[in-house]
Amino acid sequence: MPRQPVRLLTERLSLQQPAEADAVAILGILSNPSVVQHNPSDLVTELEDVETLVRHWLGHWERHGFGNCCVFEEKTGRLVGNCGVRWMTIHGGRVLNLMYRFHPSTWGRGYATEAAAALLHWTQESLPAELVVARVRPTNLASQRVATKIGLRRDPAFDDQGEDGVDWAFTDRA
Length: 174
Fold this sequence. Notes:
The chain is of the alpha+beta class.
């Protein structure tokens, strides 16, 4: 299986494999109710829970050579979000789930689109036979815009029940 580079660079962002030291900054993002408004079960308020989550992300990296990345502003070095691809099963089939979450102070700057586009490009180049799916709540218009801006299309065949309700699928399927 191809390994994602330790660091993907875009014009303004650096996407890197998470480190345990990133847990405090990640908590600052995932503990914000606005960030998980459409997926309230993903709210994390305790550092220990984020440390467990980071270990889970690192386990995916160890097993598969890629996974969820921490996203840093190149100019400031500030951790502003996370974006990644991970294996998951939808309707009995294995797919790559593309996800992105960013601190509200960065919303409207195009960071999610920039990071997701970089990861989608890497995935399509490195794992061309695999289906990429972004799962988005029907009311999350901002995430739907990110998915369509990077070239994913609404694909109801992969809609699925998530923890917080129905997730619409946006895929790179032709």
